[in-house]
Design a protein that fits this description.
2 helices, globular, five-stranded mixed sheet, alpha+beta, Nuclear Transport Factor 2, Chain: A
Length: 71
């Protein structure tokens, strides 16, 4: 599955020191999955070291994920 990172998401990742590999870990093997206000979006949380990565993304079909933001 391909993860597409729009400019907004890339900027937020850079500002927060989040790597693409960490985002992939959160999406593919989250510790917690949570609902979002928008039904088509998903939220995943992953503990990485002493911090928790919170990722919001939107699945698009069977082979694409669009990253909304990462905190």
């Amino acid at each position: 599955m391909h993860i597409f990172c729009p400019i907004h998401a890339k900027e937020r990742m850079e500002q927060r020191g989040i790597t693409r590999e960490q985002v992939e870990q959160a999406i593919y093997s989250p510790d917690i999955k949570l609902p979002t206000r928008q039904k088509r979006r998903k939220r995943a949380m992953k503990r990485i070291g002493s911090k928790t990565l919170d990722v919001v993304y939107e699945p698009r079909g069977e082979d694409k994920i669009v990253l909304v933001t990462a905190v």
